[in-house]
Amino acid sequence: MDIALLVITLILSAGLITLGVLLTVSRRQLANARKELRHKRDRPPGDGRRRRPGVAPLAVRTVTHTLRNADALIRHGIVGPVRSSVDELAAWARVERPDLARITSDGRVVLVFSDIEGSTQRNESLGDREWVKLLERHNALIQRQVADHHGYVVKNQGDGFMIAFADPADAVRCSMAIQRTLLADPARYDGIRVRIGIHAGTSVRRGDDLFGRNVAMAARIADLAAGGQILVSDELRTAVGGANIGFDEPVEVELKGLSGTQSVSSVRLTSRDAEI
């Protein structure tokens, strides 16, 4: 009985800490959103600067996601944070069915999931204030590389990202750029290790059964990846084709929620073949 009470207490404490982190991040990002909106309002008439089509204001989009996350935590209870960020994002996508058709002309889309390995333990060791600062640096890196490689952040939840690309090579090069940046500047990013999984899907229509399977495939591959690793499905590897991106030999694995075995490969980060 004492052990059960201890477990419940730990879960409740973890939930409260996560809620505090989400609310703290949302306040910071809301301030950034207001600053950006003031800047746009005060911009002189005739200013010809334009944002890349399809890329929404970063601060506004991110704070909206964060506030939704905090609200979901309050509504659904604080047991949820025990699941990984990738699990939460995949569950959200299967329910909400985000419309990704607008980013692709042929019905195919590349899905990327990522999160920080051991994020709960890192949060506990750093404390909430330092963890929030680290999370903001990590999230800014992801957002910047996604924009530079023509991707679209479908949703960001805590340290987890669900990202979509129209081009398979762009998805891999973006992921490589993220990993190389983290390796090149461990002091700035406190030595965090990010897990990334990528899958090229064959359908993005909301009502198509393949949508849920593609989301599950990308998420399960990300769960399988180790920190600092990029794992891709066989479909993604085939779609990349002759893009001069190096892969290790594929291995057959069983993925939770998917029947049979799946072939996955690790991207070679040490190779300079792929121009980032």
Automatic annotation (TrEMBL):
Enzymatic class: lyase
Keyword check for Lyase: yes
Region (Disordered): 34-54
Taxonomy, superkingdom: Bacteria
A GO term, aspect molecular function: adenylate cyclase activity
Entry keywords, A to Z: Lyase
GO terms classed as biological process: cyclic nucleotide biosynthetic process; intracellular signal transduction
Domain Guanylate cyclase: 110-222
Keyword Lyase attributed: yes
EC number(s) given by UniProt: 4.6.1.1
PANTHER family: ADENYLATE CYCLASE, TERMINAL-DIFFERENTIATION SPECIFIC, ADENYLATE CYCLASE, TERMINAL-DIFFERENTIATION SPECIFIC-RELATED
Stated family: Belongs to the adenylyl cyclase class-3 family.
Protein name per UniProt: pH-sensitive adenylate cyclase
